[in-house]
């Protein structure tokens, strides 16, 4: 999260960033292997990872009830997803597994971190909730309250439930058996801090607390909190008609 990786050719305005340091490929460079990726992993590995990641993304869009539900919710809201345009597999900082770039309206799946279908399903669902909120409410991601709200919703609807430790790769949040709401709070604060290094921990906590009740109660478009190992995923997908999604 320091500036040491920033390319002098592509300065990033601090005001405009949403965690660019974590997504080096987001700096306007061509979407191909960078010298530093090749130096660390070899070009062959980078390309192989990208191919695998894209194949897993495609698999989730074909087979995951949650990803399919989010896809149809977005489509019904006028924000159709084109896999090639809206989803990008990239090499990221290992601190993150995925992200949503509100400026390009693109989901980033971190090909060097997210290596399984299950993990990619979790990332896609989480980031598609940000995309959905942005589509529905024109979120201002630079506004920490907006950011906190969509992070609460993403954690509430997915992460703190069935996706659990493998879903987002940060098992430590789940290891201790927390109350669901506490889990959502912890995860949302961590997500706000990851995207906004300028916001302190106490401030992030205060912001999350302030919007928590309203955003925690808003279950659209999944309609329920998905429990681990339950039939909720399928049920949510089957009941998508209740919200008018097809
Ligand atoms: Zn998020």
From TrEMBL:
UniProt-listed InterPro entries: Peptidase_M76_ATP23
Any one GO biological process: mitochondrial proton-transporting ATP synthase complex assembly
Protein name: Mitochondrial inner membrane protease ATP23
Protein family according to the UniProt entry: Belongs to the peptidase M76 family.
Keyword Membrane annotated: no
EC number per UniProt: 3.4.24.-
This protein's UniProt keywords: Hydrolase, Metal-binding, Metalloprotease, Protease
Single Gene Ontology MF annotation: metal ion binding
UniProt organism field: Eubosmina coregoni
PANTHER family per UniProt: MITOCHONDRIAL INNER MEMBRANE PROTEASE, MITOCHONDRIAL INNER MEMBRANE PROTEASE ATP23 HOMOLOG
Lineage: Eukaryota, Metazoa, Ecdysozoa, Arthropoda, Crustacea
Record-level GO cellular component terms: mitochondrion
């Amino acid at each position: 999260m320091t500036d040491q990786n920033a390319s002098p050719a592509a300065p990033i305005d601090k005001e405009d960033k949403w965690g660019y340091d974590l997504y080096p490929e987001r700096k306007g460079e061509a979407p191909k292997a960078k010298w530093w990726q090749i130096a660390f992993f070899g070009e062959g590995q980078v390309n192989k990872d990208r191919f695998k990641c894209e194949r897993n993304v495609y698999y989730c869009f074909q087979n995951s009830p949650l990803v399919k539900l989010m896809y149809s919710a977005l489509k019904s809201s006028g924000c159709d997803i084109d896999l090639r345009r809206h989803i990008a597999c990239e090499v990221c900082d290992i601190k993150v597994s995925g992200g949503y770039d509100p400026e390009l309206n693109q989901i980033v799946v971190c090909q060097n971190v997210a290596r399984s279908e299950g993990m990619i399903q979790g990332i896609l669902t989480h980031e598609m909730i940000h995309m959905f909120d942005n589509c529905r409410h024109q979120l201002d991601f630079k506004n920490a309250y907006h950011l906190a709200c969509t992070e609460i919703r993403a954690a509430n609807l997915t992460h703190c439930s069935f996706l659990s430790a493998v879903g987002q790769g940060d098992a430590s949040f789940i290891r201790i058996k927390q109350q669901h709401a506490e889990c959502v709070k912890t995860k949302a604060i961590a997500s706000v801090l990851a995207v906004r290094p300028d916001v302190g921990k106490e401030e992030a906590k205060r912001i999350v607390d302030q919007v928590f009740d309203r955003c925690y109660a808003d279950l659209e478009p999944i309609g329920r909190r998905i429990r681990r190992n339950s039939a909720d995923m399928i049920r949510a997908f089957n009941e998508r008609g209740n919200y008018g999604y097809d």
